[in-house]
Amino acid sequence: MHGISKTLLRIAFLTLLIVIPLQGKDDGVSVGFVSVALDARIAELKYQNGAEVEELNVYKGARSKRIAYNGDQTVHFFRESEQVDDNGDPIRTIVGSVHLPQKNGVFLFIFRRLPGADEKYKIVPIPDGLKQFRPGMYRFINLTPYDIALKVGETKSLMKKGKFTDLESKADSGSYQEAMMYSLVVEQGEVDMKPYRAFKGKVLFSENRRSIYIITPKDGGRAGRVDITVIPENLTKR
Question: Rounded CA gap, 48 and 29, in Å?
């Protein structure tokens, strides 16, 4: 009886050793994604999608085709060399990686080239599903190092740095609305934020369009200056 108890304990212990790693195993993700480049077109990037290596072309200021992706939660984009490793596979050089914040859904990947001679990209994932970001909406993505005060028509909002802000409008479809942005900059040696006008102009509203405004710091000049990349997408309102 004593021997049987020991045997049962051993079996239970071995079962526990097997089950624990399985419970912590990452089963991967199943998402859709589209991509856009802020600097220049990126041709023939490669990435692992399930068991296959696929290619992606990323266009400046325009959405790529939508990709159905199944794989690791961190997506690596790479170049393949003509040289091979010890297993006979092409040597890969990773030029950018992005960690998906969720294991399902649809995302927009924003590619921005990092300074330097080597090809490297910072990639920002933004949720892009139609349930939250519908036709008739604006999405302002603040990729600057400071908060930005925003006014579109009569609607005011504060865009936190590194975040995005969605706005809806009650304007007539096809009309233009006045828009203003002020960068809230804390200058070196100062404590209080100072507002600098970053943009004044008009934005188009359409009930069948959702529009993304990607805001990035302008190279050179004073702090608070920005560049804005507009990415419209025409859809039938649901």
Answer: 13
Rounded distance between C-alpha atoms, residue 163 and residue 141, angstroms: 6
- The answer to whether residue 187 scores a pLDDT higher than 90 is no
Polymer length in residues for the chain: 238
C-beta of residue 66 within 8 angstroms of C-beta of residue 33: yes
The least confident of 8-17, 47-56, 63-72, 168-177 is 8-17
| Integer Cα distance of 225 and 219 in angstroms | 8
95 C-beta neighbours (distance < 10 Å), count: 20
Question: What order of strands is seen across the sheet that includes strand 42-49?
Answer: 52-58, 42-49, 74-84, 90-99
- Confirm if 131 and 105 have CB atoms less than 8 A apart: no
Mean pLDDT value of segment 201-214: 94
Residue reference for tokens 């009309």: 175
138 pLDDT above the threshold of 70: yes
DSSP state of 177: E
Task: Give the pLDDT band of residue 23 (cuts 50, 70, 90).
Answer: very low
Q: DSSP labels for 48-110?
A: EETTEEEEEEE-BTS----EEEEE-SEEEEEEEEEEE-TTSPEEEEEEEEEE-SSSEEEEEEE
